[in-house]
Recover the amino acids of this structure.
């Protein structure tokens, strides 16, 4: 009998957890591979050319941009987080490294984070209790690091009813708890 | 207190970590500058009542180091720069 080795999700199960609280749906995602991509000094041209060729978007400050294969959001000057489908890009560094060569430093980030997709009408009421960022006034495609429940998380606003969070994987349960408690308090 | 980040706009001071006098950027060469200069860099700080340039780290933001010009009496912030730009302007970046 062949051994079946299944990876556990950040919350410790073999399937992603989905919680529905009133209108709010909090869905764990573990089908996205993640890597940080930092431009090396003086490599501006080679870096931009490589990104274009590989189809990696390089959005401006505080922005997320989806692409055909790779999506990306801005982290800090000259550094981005790159997302890709886990099924096809489990080893995302190996996929990016040949394209960028010596122009970038790339670090695998997939298992360092837990990702929650939060959706529903009236998300502003939830996030105004959790974060400094004013979700109501932010544009679609906004991405930034912020603090929630003392945890450093990346928040991406796709629309007024859809937000993605990346939080520290070791605090996955704590972040989910904060989301649950806050959602319950506003319904 | 709100710090007006040069890239990200106004952000709450709770997102930042304070390091201290911005002169920490100007570390003398320990092998050529002499022990007095290095001692001064390491231990001596001005403590002005008034305008002060200080280093802040945007830990819960884009992780950049900033040079913030702040009045220590009124807490008014008059200037915020990226520390890397300050260093580059001094010809520090190779």
């Amino acid at each position: 009998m062949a051994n079946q080795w299944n990876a556990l999700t950040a919350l410790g199960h073999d399937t992603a957890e989905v919680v529905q609280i009133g209108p709010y749906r909090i869905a764990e995602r573990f089908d996205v591979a993640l890597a940080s991509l930092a431009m090396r000094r003086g490599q501006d041209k080679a870096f931009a050319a490589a990104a274009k060729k590989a189809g990696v978007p390089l959005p401006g400050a505080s922005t997320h941009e989806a692409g055909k294969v790779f999506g990306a959001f801005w982290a800090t000057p000259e550094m981005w987080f790159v997302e890709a489908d886990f099924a096809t890009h489990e080893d995302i560094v190996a996929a990016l490294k040949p394209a960028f060569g010596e122009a970038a430093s790339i670090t695998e980030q997939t298992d360092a984070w837990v990702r929650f997709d939060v959706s529903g009408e009236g998300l502003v009421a939830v996030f105004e209790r959790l974060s400094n960022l004013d979700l109501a006034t932010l544009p679609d495609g906004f991405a930034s690091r912020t603090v929630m429940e003392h945890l450093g998380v990346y928040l991406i606003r796709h629309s007024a009813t859809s937000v993605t969070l990346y939080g520290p994987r070791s605090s996955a349960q704590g972040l989910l708890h904060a989301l649950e408690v806050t959602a319950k308090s506003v319904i | 207190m709100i710090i007006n980040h040069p890239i990200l706009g106004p952000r709450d001071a709770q997102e930042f970590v304070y390091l201290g006098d911005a002169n920490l950027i100007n570390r003398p060469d320990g092998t050529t500058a002499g022990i007095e200069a290095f001692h001064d860099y390491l231990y001596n700080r001005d403590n002005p009542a008034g305008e002060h340039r200080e280093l802040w780290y945007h830990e819960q933001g884009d992780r950049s180091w900033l040079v913030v010009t702040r009045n220590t009496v009124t807490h008014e912030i008059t200037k915020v720069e990226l520390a890397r730009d300050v260093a580059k302007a001094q010809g520090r970046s190779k």
In short: Residues 172-186 of chain A form the longest helix (15 residues). DSSP finds four helices and eleven strands in chain A. The interface with chain B takes residues 61-62, 74-77, 132, 144-147, 152 of chain A (CB under 8 Å). Residues 32-111 of chain A form a domain with the Alpha-Beta Plaits fold (CATH 3.30.70.1520).
